[in-house]
Amino acid sequence: MEIDPFIFRLSIFILSIFIGYYVVWSVTPSLHTPLMSVTNAISSVIIVGAIIAGLAGNSDSIFSTSSIFGFLAISLAAVNIFGGFLVTQRMLAMYKKKKKDK
Amino acid sequence: MLSANLSAIFYLISGVLFILALRGLSSPETSRQGNFFGILGMAIAVIVTFLSIGNFSAGFLIVLIFLLIGGLIGAFIAYKIPMTAMPELVAGFHSLVGLSAVFVAIAAFLNPEAFNLGSPGNIKLGSLIEMSIGAAVGAITFSGSIIAFLKLQGIMSGSPITFKGQHPLNALILISIIVIIYLLCSTQSSNLFWILLTISFLIGFLLIIPIGGADMPVVISMLNSYSGWAAAGIGFTLENTALIITGALVGSSGAILSYIMCKGMNRSFFNVILGGFGATEQSVSSQNKEQRPVKSGNADDAAFLMKNASSVIIVPGYGMAVAQAQHALREMVDTLKKNDIKVSYAIHPVAGRMPGHMNVLLAEANVPYDEVFELEEINNDFANADVAFVIGANDVTNPVAKTDPQSPIYGMPVLDVEKCKSVLFVKRSLSPGYAGIDNDLFYKENTLMLFADAKKMTEDITKNL
Do B246 and A50 touch (CB under 8 A)? Predict the structure, then answer.
């Protein structure tokens, strides 16, 4: 009997939760705010679904209800992607080590 | 046009790059590289999506325009936002992830052919379940984050909003969400889909209003987690590995942060979520309000004490963020260091309004991160330090958490500030902190209260040093 592809996706999902668990515990507490902003940015990879929805319309009807929701989702996710990564970069650039003054 | 197998491999690569992005955050040195991996992963995912559709007609241009508009707004916000507003920003961003998950789910529900999920009214059962879970969690994330944002921004009062029958009502709505998902899957009715979205928005709103301002670190982490689960739900619908991996990473990341924050307050997750901490304890504090003598001083006294110290530990809290005192504080510390005084910073896990809030503010003020310590690392040093300088923190220093089993914060890990030879407390008044309980530290023999705005007081001390 063939295995439903859903099971494979579920396996990826479960294993990723474990990866996330161990990776996030190793994040130093002082970087917890950048952690939140970068997780924000990467969860906006949902833009992939928005692009599919936005491009689904044929040339007669570019603006169907479905593709309009797609376009809006693209903008929302893009705010997050650019905003999230850039603000993370801005924060991380501030973390400096002590200058050798001792 | 990219084959389905090839694009699946690219999605896997971008998922791995996202894992590396989080891995990089294990130390500040590797973190910038990690962020670069994240950007790379995102670029791969977006480009592969365009190539796999391979439809570069008029719709493509519109997609690019919307992408650009969003990107410009995001970049503008990222450069303009002050570091003190980071909790609001993160809450706002969570709401966007939630809303875009909802929009993608709506688009997929209206036009399932585009996603290979069947036809309208006849969507594959598995996809419909995944889609409705993703949409419901996304809607909860959206409205919950909006409330968190309003509370953090001060537009909405930070005090908990509770009413009679709140918990039964919430429980009823949560159960009806499950029932509606079940009915939706058996009837494929679009009306049920809209009802599902509406009540999910409603429950997100109801879940967050009873939670008070200082519990926001837990709320933000929790919503972070939800945004991940919503993304994972949509990832299952779209059969997209990058989205499934990311959703799982973000979901567990947020869950771990919530756990760390709850532990920092010695409260169970459910205790925080069910809310009303600040509201119930207020009455206790007003009862035993007796007049006790307090020593208060001015900037001159504080400067004198610190000048004669050999080591100083600084304990920042939310008040420092409110007063924007981090730069003034760093200048004071620079002056102290010139006088050969050893200075370090002690950060409580729940100081501020989100995980790591204080660390970012200190980093912004150019404080080297190797002078900043977590609670467990520094707590034994208080006994050997001469001065503890508490600026804008309160409950996290309250010794009552160790001594009085009756106290609502009993058992919460606190900074052993009272073990210092002397304690300087910058605060605007004697009013109790968020937990609504008096801080014994105010009345201790070796405590000097400095009643003033945190920024102004710090500047005055620097002048007197």
Answer: no
* Of the partner residues A48, A93, A95, the one whose CB lies closest to the CB of residue B49: A48
Nearest CA in chain A to B57: A59
Alpha carbon separation from B404 to B374, B400, B407, B408, B411 (Å, rounded): 24, 5, 6, 9, 9
Quote the minimal CA–CA distance from B294 to chain A in Å: 34
**Radius of gyration, CA atoms only, chain A:** 20
| Minimum distance, in Å, between the CA of residue A64 and any CA atom of chain B | 9
User: Would the CB atoms of A51 and B46 count as touching at under 8 Å?
Assistant: yes
Instruction: For residue B395, indicate whether it is catalytic.
Output: yes
- The residues near B291 (Cβ < 8 Å, ≥ 6 apart) are none
Task: Of B279, B238, B425, B189, give the one whose Cα is nearest residue A73.
Answer: B238
Catalytic residue of the set B215, B395, B416, B438: B395
Kind plus residue range of the DSSP H or E element containing B366: none
ipTM over 0.85: yes
Helix (H) or strand (E) holding B345: strand B342-347
Cβ of B374 and A74 within 8 Å?
Answer: no
Question: Distance between CA atoms of B128 and B108, rounded to whole angstroms?
Answer: 9
Q: Answer whether A52 sits within 8 Å of B115, measured CB to CB.
A: yes
Cα–Cα distance, B400 to B380 (Å, whole number):
18
A73 contacts B104? CB cut-off 8 A: yes
Nearest to B38 among A41, A72, A73 (CB): A41
Nearest CB to A50 within list B53, B100, B250: B100
Nearest in space to B101 (alpha carbons), one of B62, B146, B63, B139: B139
Report d(CA B230, CA B101) in Å as an integer.
Answer: 7
> What DSSP line would sit under B175-190, residue for residue?
HHHHHHHHHHHHH--H
Q: Determine the Cα–Cα distance for residues B90 and B224; give it in Å rounded to an integer.
A: 9
pLDDT tens per residue, chain B (465 residues)? 678 889 999 999 999 999 999 999 999 889 999 999 999 999 999 999 999 887 777 778 888 999 999 999 999 999 999 888 899 999 999 999 999 999 999 999 998 888 888 888 888 888 899 999 999 999 999 999 999 999 888 888 777 777 788 888 888 999 999 999 999 988 888 899 999 999 999 999 998 888 877 788 888 999 999 999 999 999 999 888 999 999 999 999 999 999 998 888 887 777 777 665 444 444 444 445 556 778 888 888 888 888 888 899 999 988 898 888 999 999 999 999 988 899 999 999 888 888 888 999 999 998 998 899 998 889 888 888 999 999 988 888 888 888 888 777 788 888 988 888 888 888 887 777 666 677 888 888 888 888 888 888 888 888 887
Choose from A15, A31, A46 for mutation: most chain B CBs within 10 A.
A46
The 10 Å Cβ neighbour count of residue B22 is 25
